[in-house]
Design a protein that fits this description.
Helix content is 20%, strand content 16%. The protein has two domains: 1-21 and 262-280, no CATH class; 25-260, q2cbj1_9rhob like domain (Jelly Rolls, Sandwich), CATH 2.60.120.620. It has helices spanning 31-44, 55-65, 96-100, 102-111, 237-240, 243-248, 251-257; strands at residues 46-49, 82-85, 117-126, 152-158, 170-171, 190-191, 199-203, 208-209, 219-227. Bound molecules: 2-oxoglutaric acid. Residues 124, 133, 156, 169, 208-210, 221 line the site of 2-oxoglutaric acid.
Length: 280
Amino acid sequence: MAAEVSSIVDLAGDLAGTYRRTESSGRTVDPAIAEADLAALRRDGYVILENLLTPQQLAEIRADVLPLLARTGRNDFEGHATQRIYSVLNKTRSCDRIVDHPRVLALLDRLFLPNYLLSMLQVINILPGESAQMLHTDDSFYPIPRPRAALGAATIWAVDDFTADNGATDIVAGSHVWGDRLPGEDAERAPVVMPAGSCVFFLGTLWHGGGANRSADPRLALTAQYCEPWLRPQEAFTLSTPREVVREVSEDIRRMLGYSIHPPFIGQVDGMHPKRLLEP
Ligand SMILES: O=C(O)CCC(=O)C(=O)O
């Protein structure tokens, strides 16, 4: 049934007739846990969510992604001793829980407007000998001055344990509230030490970077990044993801790939809900 639109306020609602807005599985998380995660995130700019993946899930990820690792980075930012896999959803289903873990969605539900989007999903394997990556923030490419609310957020998931010397992500705690300030050479960068199966969730405004790998072993991780539903994601998922893959993933992931509408019209296809493209 068509929604009634008689004022500008109605345009902010869900106008879809057939494909109504779907609820995030973040709602399955105990609100007390999600609110505690959120309080830490707002205070420090990051929060560590420990032991969310089982050993079996980690083994499946490892088995699927290790054979896909090949060339090293093309510049200092990607890292000349770092291997990356892009377009992960098109290559394996084993990383889906990285994208749509309810504990992560519960935070995203509280930070962003409904139908926030997946902006990036990438495997990052930092090899022994890699130097520290330049510090950066993940939403600085949206040209809106700081200080401001984050326009996106990121997770980095440890597939190997993150230790003080194996390339664990470095963060600058509290830097999410900085204005124009840039971290200096002596920036307080500190490694996120956490066991495999955990993730660090941080705001798009937090300064961070891959750590130097001074150990003898690679450091395998995945990053999933998200953005407000009115922004352009880093990866053009609607162009790169074949419809058979879109049909296979969870409804949470489908919505975050762009099979959703930010009211009233952002994301429409030929004036209709994009899910019509998935009809037989
Ligand atoms: O791999 C990491 O720990 C962080 C990498 C990162 O922030 C990036 O490549 O944008």
